[in-house]
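User: I've been going back and forth on whether these two constructs are worth ordering. Before I decide, could you fold them both?

Assistant: Sure. I'll take them in the order you sent them. The first construct and its structure tokens:
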Amino acid sequence: MPEPILLQTLKGKPTSRPPVWFMRQAGRVLPSYLKIKEKYSFWQMMQNPKVAAEVTLLPVYDLGVDAAILFSDILVIPYAMGMGLDFTDAGPVFEKPLAQRKNPLENLNPNPEKLFYIYDVVDEIIKTRPANTPLIGFCGAPLTVLLFMLQGLGRKGDFPDAVKFIYQNPETTQKLVDAITTLSIIYAKEQIRHGVEVFQLFDTHAGLLPFDMYKKLFLPATKKIAAAVREENIPFIFFPKGVGTGIAEITPEHCDFLSIDWQTPLTTARKLVHNDIGLQGNIDPRLLFASREEIEKTLNNYIEFGSQHQNWIFNLGHGFIPGLPFENALFLADWVKNTDWKRNS
């Protein structure tokens, strides 16, 4: 059986088309997921290996994507660090965010055993997945995780209390980053030990701080997590959303592939990013609200880039948005697979 197209691309092998998967593909736009969601809460789905494995694999069956990504959440790390957490309809809510505590480090008690249920999910996915379907593991990057830990649920995604805390408490911030990084490395390595073949680090709010500050306080943690993942001979994808021209300062030490948001054109990203780093992304998920003709017109602009660059994974510039038409998500996946990418392989 040939090696999965995603793994071929990550290893630098030529393929006839780019591989395709989507961030937040397990849910949100899938009618089959919304049905399952009627029976279980988000927490229940994540903690039940059979249900979580089924949800992880839904997009492989329903959309025909080239990979599955573990159905979980970036906030399992703060939960395992001893923060009370509840997933509500409005989003994740912490019992008492760290910015509201006198001593934020005091009650943190990282316990890797609180992540064991996730490895049961990985085992179940590996056991039940269709042949030739690689599994992507992930965790949240320290900045994005820390913002939620400090603020609780972000107000319009700008996390004012958290940012204020980071500016006022650089030493405590560094200790918190170190603690998140240490547990994230244990978590990543265990996912890999249980069968994950690709690992992605999500820094959804990387653009919230000035890049120089981000580079100094948070990029060293990315480098550590990348090194730990690569020790296991697993390709590492990094998604620092919103850093703009900061992508020029991402080096091969930070990742094998860099996921690009929709704000930066791929051609610009390719000029800025180190040649040894492959690219992933950057379709605007909101494009899928447009007419089919408009979607296709926009997608056709990617053919030239895809024909010239083998080291590119077709993906979104961020995750699927609730309410997007399922038919358009399916059209997107089918389009990638049926288009002539004008490659010689």
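The second construct, handled the same way:
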Amino acid sequence: MADHSTPNAAGAQTPDLTARQIRRMKRFDNPWRNPKLIWGAGLLLGIVAMGILGRIFWDPDLVFTGSGLTRQPPVGLENLRGQIGTWAHPLGTDGAGRDVLALLIIGAPNSLFVGVLASLIGMSIGIFLGFSAGFIRGRVDDVIRVLSDVMITIPPLLILVVFQAAYGDISLTMMAILIACFVWQSPTRLIRAQVLSMRESGYVQMARLSGASTMHIMFREMMPNLVPYLFGSFIANVTTSIVTAVGLEVLGLGPQRIPTLGRTIYEAINSGALIQNLYWWWGIPTILLALMFIGLLLINLGLDEVSNPRLRKL
């Protein structure tokens, strides 16, 4: 075999990179060509597209009670009563005669909306508090650090259960705001730690000597270096927010008249779908939730590989 190596400055032999290895390095240097990031974004965009295009190509009014026969199975299957699925309801119906496909088309984007909105609000709070604690320091840092430590010890699901049980039906936006009150601690601690390590760096000191304002240093000098951490924290918060929202909905809390994946699963469990072999009623929303979480996980892993050179394998 030919020796594909070249001598370095010390005279040692170092292997040349093959064309395949070079292509893989370039692939990881370009975030849009990272396979995990592409597959994860594709899954989430597919769910969003289902919510947008589904309203055009499928009748959204089928989410109302009595839109079809109750507990009708998907196409090609037969239920315990001998009913065979039809193309009028390709994924079957629930106990109230509502079309399962219509419930997914309306409910999946609603569940994703709650997670994204809660994460955006939580990240905004975390960025403000994290920069304030890490850059200003002193008593401000002490107060924010203690507050975030205390909030982390409080079980958010228990507080949200008590609050929503007291106030009853709420909107998707209100639910996202409530969840955001419990997802700002992690980005706050992350940003604070990064700012503390960056505030003494050379380029920050040069910006100070040049007379740059505090806001300029934080958001023009430091913020670009925090973008990979912010994206990773945002995706993690979206996952946490969706899990929290689904957990509340499965308990029968949250929006009562707005279709979501968690609400659909709750109604299936509450109606005895598990023991009546009505697996399409709760199984299909569960699979869609799993795909949503897999997409978020792949995006997070892809961002890690793009931003962390140690994770790039040749």
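Notes on the second construct follow. DSSP finds eleven helices and two strands in the chain. The mean pLDDT is 82.
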